[in-house]
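Entry type: protein chain
Record version: 2
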Amino acid sequence: MSKFKNQLKVWDKRYLWHPFTQMKDWLADQNQPLIIDKADGIYLIDTEGKCYIDGVSSLWVNVHGHRHPKIDAAIKRQIDKISHSTLLGLANTASVELSKRLIEIVPRGLKKVFYSDNGSTAVEIALKMAYQYWQNTGHKNKRSLVHLQNSYHGDTLGSVSVGGIDLFHKVYRGLIFKTVALKGQGWQAVNDFETLLKKKAPSVAALVVEPLIQGAAGMLVWPKGVLKEFRRLCSKYDVFLIADEVATGFGRTGKMFACQQEAVSPDFLCLAKGMTGGYLPLAATLTTQKIYDGFVFDYKDQKTFFHGHTYTGNPLACAAALANLEVFEKEHTLKKLSPKIKFLAQQLKMFYNLPSVVEVRQCGFMAGIELKGRWDGRVGTRVCQAARQYGVILRPLGNVVVILPPLVIKMDELEYLLMSTYRVIKEITGGDFYG
């Protein structure tokens, strides 16, 4: 068995290309790779049998812990029925049931569900629907798509077009379409948007935002009321609001969806990540009856939404998502989360005792600790690598250390996660500037 474990590491470096990873460093690091073999609850377990707290929910997707018995059972039951059937020209039971359930819990006004596979495609679908709606209904000039500076909406080219993080997207500028980026953050972005609309509203198709918190930009938290004002302006000037809740959906901000924090109903709601509880790839783009009706024409008009994916509405993934929502309801996940959010807020204050900490940002159960240093990812990466010796898995965003555990983490486990993170930041930075 030991020989096989070593062979896995050799095969990884020989055959595998990892996402968002500097592969030269990966190949040179004698400690890489840490290979996860199984999991239990909030813990990941490597091939050596060592346990680690899943401090970033396996990239923000795990909700109720790994191997939750109800979700496991739902997937097994679905396997005994059917694992996949196309939605092109057919329907399947699980996808129909899930669409009904989603409409029951999302902000009012959203009436239709279009499935895909991941966050990037969910946003890309919203962009294409928004653009085509205006073309279908005779508003040919409404073509411009607006987004925020430092925005991130995924890695397919449409989503990259409304992305504002040069580190990820600059190299692809020659491949993408032109968009409008609002200046600044928070209320400055709102003011810039209003100025734009006063001059060019008839040409603006949609605004796409990550409501309340911009995750990949380093957990940038919006001031209260910004989302509601974006909604007001979009309604006033007849512009669609696309809410990218890929990261914030399914309890991450303390409510099921971030838009509900400010009683906002967007024209499009993009969901993925936590949708299946961290089990299977599934995404959804939800929209209104008005927008749906903008595609309902005679076949000869050729105004169909010509978009789809092979695994759209996959029954296994939909079964997992239905079970995920059932667990939310029956285990009172959001109610139990409230005291954890308060505890997290209290405990995060201690990080300001470290001179190397620039700022601590929190929105619900999402947090980022920004450290001093160059924007090269080194300090964040080294902190997260060192955290493994304490049995903690973290993931940096440049110099921002992200804390985003499964919602079901227990209070003592959360305390250990935070204390370990504090300790390792102090050790790596010497409690001071790390350049």
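Comment: The chain has two domains: 34-64+332-429, 71-330.
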